[in-house]
């Protein structure tokens, strides 16, 4: 059964760091693009970052460039989102999602992703 499970969310002060994990099962991570998205209350879902399958090229939203990093460990079937210098506006539910297979680049449009995790809450507040 295909699953994506996020973990690592929580409450952090502004300027702090968190690392989100997306553990996958039911498919071979190596072959697929994985994306991270977030949705704050009253706002539309936003693409945050993605990492492609074959070349592991990454893409970051402008709002998180220089602060967030995405990487994958295929042996552990896990994709990570390292979030540094967190701001209150980063507060949201964060989702990971499975995108296309065998791609050299990845996009941040949710429509490209077919399977989603249940989400992890990230709250940045003093």
Would you kindly provide a written description of the structure presented here, covering whatever features stand out?
- The protein is an all-beta fold.
- It contains no helices and eleven strands.
- It has strands at residues 3-7, 10-12, 18-25, 32-39, 46-51, 58-60, 68-73, 78-83, 92-101, 115-116, 120-124.
- The strands form two sheets. Strands 2, 4, 5, 6, 9, 10 and 11 form a seven-stranded mixed β-sheet that branches. A four-stranded antiparallel β-sheet has the order 1-3-8-7, with no helix packed on it.
- A hairpin with a 4-residue loop joins β7 (68-73) and β8 (78-83).
- The N and C termini lie far apart (40 Å).
Explain briefly what this protein structure is.
This protein has strands spanning 3-7, 10-12, 18-25, 32-39, 46-51, 58-60, 68-73, 78-83, 92-101, 115-116, 120-124.
SSE inventory with pairings:
Elements: E1 3-7, E2 10-12, E3 18-25, E4 32-39, E5 46-51, E6 58-60, E7 68-73, E8 78-83, E9 92-101, E10 115-116, E11 120-124
Parallel strand pairs: 2-11
Antiparallel strand pairs: 1-3, 3-8, 4-5, 4-9, 5-6, 7-8, 9-10, 9-11
Q: Extract low-pLDDT stretches.
A: none
Shape type: globular
Strand content: over 45%
Q: In oligomeric terms, what are we looking at?
A: single chain
Classify the helix fraction into a percent range.
under 10%
| Largest sheet entry | 7 strands, mixed
Query: Whole-number radius of gyration?
Result: 13 Å
List the helices and strands in order. Answer: EEEEEEEEEEE
H/I helix tally: 0
Give the termini distance in whole angstroms.
40 Å
Q: What class do helices, strands and sheet pairing give?
A: mainly beta
How confident is the prediction overall: mean pLDDT?
Answer: 96
How many strands in all? 11
């Amino acid at each position: 059964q295909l699953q994506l499970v996020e973990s690592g969310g929580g409450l952090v002060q502004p300027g702090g760091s968190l690392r989100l994990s997306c553990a996958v099962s039911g498919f071979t991570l190596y072959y697929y693009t994985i994306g991270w998205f977030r949705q704050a209350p009253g706002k539309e879902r936003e693409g945050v970052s993605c990492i492609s399958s074959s070349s592991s090229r990454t893409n970051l939203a402008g709002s998180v460039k220089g602060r967030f990093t995405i990487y994958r460990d295929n042996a552990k079937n896990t994709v990570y989102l390292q979030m540094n210098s967190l701001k209150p506006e980063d507060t949201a539910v964060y989702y990971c999602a499975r995108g296309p297979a065998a791609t050299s680049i990845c996009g941040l449009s949710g429509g490209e992703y077919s399977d989603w995790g249940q989400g992890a809450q990230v709250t940045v507040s003093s």
